[in-house]
């Protein structure tokens, strides 16, 4: 198995993205079977190394690994040699020596997955690094969009529009989605308070920035809400949750009157803050679909990495 890692959306060409989406459709079909398993990665080992709390991503990767017949090892800093002062790099070298083939890592510091990849021969998958990126979330969001619109080719995405609403400054999901969607020519609006918006993001990514939800945002094909990343806030960025909801929350009086729109959220949700329950659980919502699609896409990612960036299912 050639070493192939996914650390950033920047690592992926449009061909890579299309291939992963194609395999995701095949894996989605596998998940519809009574026996949700293929033998492709039998005998391979996936280590899940999460330094931050996670429900969706961790369980999704664990299920994805099992459904492609890989074995999984869960690593926890509690009780590990890191608590005794061992460096992260030495821990990675130890894990590599034990025969792990894939390392899925989430860390609260930006760039850690890149450092890990530089110091090991394991294929590394970035499951979120601080405020930087979350590439597999962006890929599953793209897959969800394509399924909702019944698209097969990523080239058809260029005709669509996406508005991302919420705490852009602290969101790795926003960064990865913006990078991915811009590669595909999607029209993007980002909507945020001045204090939760990265300076110059409109010029860096050639996207439209708005400070309030307006008609153009509500006319987007997809509207993605982001939660306030309070664990990353070193200061107060808005007066109160109630005021944040008033100005930037997705509310039923705005959303439920819309037609042919799709509401998304990467989770976990702060219901009543960035999104109201009536919106989150409406027919317009694809939030549960995002969670389900995460398994198929992560199966596809493991498969694609195992094949060294080649497509085809035996």
Helix amount: 25-40%
What fraction of the residues are assigned to beta strands by DSSP? 5-15%
Q: Report the CATH C-level class of the largest domain.
A: Alpha Beta
The domain tally reads: 2
Number of strands: 9
CATH topology of the largest domain: Rossmann fold
Q: What is the N-to-C succession of helices and strands? A: HEHEHEHEHEHEHEHEHHEHH
SS field, number of helical segments: 12
Overall form:
globular
Major sheet summary line: 5 strands, parallel
Content-based structural category: alpha/beta
Radius of gyration: 19 Å
Structural commentary:
The protein is of the alpha/beta class and 314 residues long. The protein has two domains: 9-133 and 291-306, 3-Layer(aba) Sandwich (Rossmann fold); 135-287, 3-Layer(aba) Sandwich (Rossmann fold). Helices cover 38% and strands 14% of the residues. It contains twelve helices and nine strands. Strands 7-6-5-8-9 form a five-stranded parallel beta sheet, covered by helices on one side. Helix 1 (14-31) crosses helix 12, helix 2 crosses helix 12 and helix 5 packs across helix 6. The two termini are 16 Å apart. The model has no long low-confidence stretch (mean pLDDT 92).
